[in-house]
Amino acid sequence: MDRYFEARPKPLDQTTLLASDMMRHLHSRQYLGKALVICDSPFSTMRVARKQWLKLARTIQRQRASTLNADKILRFTYTITHMQHMQFAAKTPLQSPDTHVFFVTPEQCDQAPLSCFTVYIASQSPMSAYEPLLTQLPTGALLVDLTGTADLPGHGLLPKHLLEEAVATAWQQVEHFFTSQNIDITDLSRDQFVHFEAMDDALDILLGASHDFLRIASSFQHAFELAQPLRVPKETQQLYNTLTLLAYRVQALTPGILSEYLLRTYHEDDTFFLHDIAADLSPEGESMLETITRHHHAGRQRLATALLASLERLSLTEGKPPGVLPEPNSKLDVL
Question: Alpha carbon of 6 to those of 140, 153, 163: distances in Å?
């Protein structure tokens, strides 16, 4: 199994600076699983790191308050909630299995938490102290050297840039899939906030291949998360965001499909998916029923049917009677 290493560019001696750098790094990897911090003073390091983590959460709260974009507000809200519920502990995984971020000494790091994809080395102990830990980490796990002294390459670990290259390979598979569906993801990404119908047309097509699409999207997202933190050009990030948005909408409209990465990114409660998708696909001033009728008359039968099914599920949840799909030239006026 392949594990990877990353050496931070500038080792930091002050606990506050080290904790700040570590928490910014962890923020980009928080949905991957649990994290382990190996340091000489677990309790004091944990206390400072927790403070920096909450500081980051407040920064995101300010970002949420400064935007009117519904999708960004949704993302920020779920990120803030996730950050606020993450548990930090200066204990071993055996002592506190429900913890998300563990702070331990080199002598305590012989047991890796389950699904631990991130390990921070903030102690200058010899690498031999970490050998029992290495064999327990899952494929794709990343060890981050915060000291500048750890001999990570000498212990069979691969450089992180290989994880970053895997993202490009996974994206090629995404592009190939979109090409097979006659969807131009580049044009779609560029015009999604200008030509809404293009996004609706793409969504209607993808609903006809939802299982394959969500499998490819999930595979890409996992590769992307493993490579974090990852800097990409703004245009490339917009492409990735468009993929995520489409995957989110397809999952919300496909009963029985719950992609793990979307549950991590958004919310576990399916009713949130249904409410959110209704808001996303209904222009301001247009009711959900009018939206369904519009898509039905535009020939987007899969999208109209999926929206109606979602509306019926919401109606059952809220104790209302279900809706009825209209004939091609009829008006939808009953629920």
Answer: 12, 10, 11
Max alpha carbon distance in the chain (Å)? 75
Show the tokens assigned to 212. Answer: 């394959």
Per the DSSP assignment, residues forming a β-bridge with 159 are 5
Beta bridge partners of 7: 145
Question: Omega before 229 cis (within 30°)?
Answer: yes
Helix axes 42-65, 15-27, angle to 10 degrees: 50
> pLDDT of 256-295, one tens digit each?
554 444 444 433 333 333 344 445 555 565 677 787 888 8
Helices (H), the chain: 15-27, 42-65, 70-85, 131-134, 161-180, 185-191, 196-206, 210-226, 234-252, 260-265, 270-281, 288-297, 301-318
Residue 300 φ/ψ, nearest 5 degrees: -90, 70
Query: How confident is the model over 25-82, as pLDDT tens digits?
Result: 999 999 888 999 999 999 999 999 999 999 999 999 999 999 887 777 877 888 898 8
Tokens at 265, concatenated: 């990114």
Q: Which among 55, 53, 60 is positioned nearest to 77, based on CA atoms?
A: 60
**Could you tell me if 249 and 256 are in contact, meaning their C-beta atoms sit under 8 angstroms apart?**
no
Residues 230, 143: Cα–Cα separation, whole Å:
15
For residue 164, give both structure tokens: 């970053």
State the DSSP code for 332: -
Cα(147)–Cα(9) distance, integer angstroms: 10
- Take residue 207 and report the two structure tokens written for it: 């609903």
Alpha-carbon span 116 to 100, nearest angstrom: 9
**How far apart are alpha carbons 188 and 171 in whole angstroms?**
15
Angle of CA points 171, 177, 178, to nearest 5°? 90
In degrees, rounded to 5, the angle at the alpha carbon of residue 289 between the alpha carbons of residues 287 and 295 is 105
Tokens found for residue 279:
């808001």
